[in-house]
Amino acid sequence: MLHLRAISPADRTDAVLATLSEQPGVANLSCSRGAAVAPAGDVVEADLARESADEVIGVLTAERLDRRGSITLTELDAVLSDAADKAEQRAKGDAADAVIWQELVSRTGEESRLSPVFQTFLTIACLLAAIGVVTDSTVTLVGAMVVGPEFGPLAGIAVGIVLRRWDLMRRAVFALAVGYPLAMLVTAGFTLLGKETGFVNAETLLAERNVDFVYQFSGYSVLIALLAGAAGMLAMTSEKSAALVGVFISVTTIPAAGYAVVAAVLGEWDRCVLSLVQLLVNLVGLVLAAALVLALRLRRDPKVVLPTRPLPRG
User: Fold this and answer.
1) What pLDDT digit, counting tens, does each position of 283-293 carry?
2) According to its UniProt record, what is one Pfam family this protein matches (predicted)?
């Protein structure tokens, strides 16, 4: 269940209450007249089934509450209410399969932002990957995969393609186009320092090692990227967000970037190029599979009202 809190202008409250009352997935509807101060208006609250959330958001935005007031949705861990149970039974579909499109756009938009935190995580992940390559530690590579925040922008590109949200797509592409080179540049500096101090050398890199799978491209690389992209988008559009961890540790995006940097610093350009190919294939595969899954989910509900509200600039 979700909890809805909306601020409605006084002249629209009666219409909003009437509309919400007609929604099968809405329960525990209440109204506090004049309770909102800025923006001024009435506070309308209700519990609603997840599968009804997208339709409810649509009718509230049609009343322009997102412009003249506000619409807030929060997850509820537990709801002990017969009325809520009946609302879930009346709602069409299954909660685990319900896509809240406005939530998806907002979430991917936030995770696609090139912020200092995003760049820091990406840089740390790339550094960890380089350390994993140098020390031949697959455990460290897995840690780098988990730390890497790149799936947010990749999902943002997929959402932008399917929903034709070019503002979201531009933001996500910019985050990756700037974030990856900057992270790799910082990693190259630390790798060069390690080379000068004797901690990094080509002989170690050229020996048969456990981490060589990072640059060894094969058909399995494409298959893994496609499966991971599909699983990642399913996780983002459902209540199975825990599955995202599996996505992070199944594709060699960050490890490939780290390996490419180490190989370039040591002058092993063949391995550097292979690592960059691995990186590119994984990035493209993730986006394509995520976009396909999203397009199929959208096709299941052709009547859905897609979100058009611009992304926040802050």
Assistant:
1) 999 999 999 99
2) DUF389
